[in-house]
User: What shape does this take?
Amino acid sequence: MCDQILKSVRTLAALLPLLALAQPAAAQRDGSWEFSGGVGALYTDGDLASFLGSNGFANSGSTPSRFVPAAAVRVGYNVSNHWGFSIGTDGATGSGVKYLTPLAAATYTANLNAKFSPFFTGGTQFTRITGENSRKTHPTWGAHLGLGIRNMLSPNVALRLEGRIAAEHYAELPGAKTAYNSILTLGLSYFTAGRRAPEAAAVAPPCPLCQVRVDTVWRTPPPPPPRKCEHGVAPAGAPVDQYGCLVLRDTLLLEGVHFDFDKSDLTSTARPILDRVAESMLAYPEAFFEIAGHTDSVGTFAYNFLLSARRAAAVRNYLIGQGVPAYKMTAVGYGEGFPIAPNATVEGRALNRRGIELRVKRP
Assistant: This one.
């Protein structure tokens, strides 16, 4: 049964990247507190359930049910867009047996500011079990791993689905001393306000008569660059204004920013292009950007998602090194999720390994 649970966890882990393809939400949740509550079910290890039954924990001396209704509460702090820490407790009761599990955990989230945010969690826990006639038992140590997904229903409220499997050492068990219990909960999370990104100073008054389409939303663009863009080279086919700066609107394909097979290191060809991109981004102080990475279909979906995310992060880090403020950029890996050509041919796969895309977002 433990093998089946682990296989299910690995399968869910492979599917989670698909849920991270949503666009970033408007709220800034870095530095926020997160309050969570939910209900679900606890699945008890077979050896532990037999032990509880043989020692009179359950009603009428029977073996307690292995599926038990459960509830969970948690409070956490999101240190950054990816990392957070939390404490909480799970409670469950069934067949006259009560389970109380305080826990502490660290959480890694793919993108906390996205509408869909898959996350992994791990930490320590200790389950106190009480039964008939005040019988009690508890482990000498325990640890858990888990994964889940948040779906933002509003800027501050998210639907939270989480599954965990725990390993706990019970010295009283007659055979193997380690019990593997798992829990699945569904509930809500509430986020307090996060840190505000610093506001960029306006260089010149906006042009009220100019309208530029950004994705599918029309907005007044920032003023034209007041200085020339002279470093690096412009991507092939990219529009350039009279100052030598790239015209940044909608989605710009950075042709020439490619990566070696199965690599996320920038090439010597990519760096001069990114130098011109960085100068151009600095000339648009009111704009925010998404750096999107893509791959072909060679390899597993989960691996391609992570590879594209590393490539997008490498470009973002290089642009930060060239002076572009970090808060103005979000790196997102889309893996093989958005092909522009069939993956059945060599030529199609080459097109799907297209260079990084730079997308202009609303502030």
Q: What stands out?
A: Residues 210 and 305 are 38 Å apart (CA to CA). The chain has five helices and 16 strands. The longest strand covers residues 178-191.
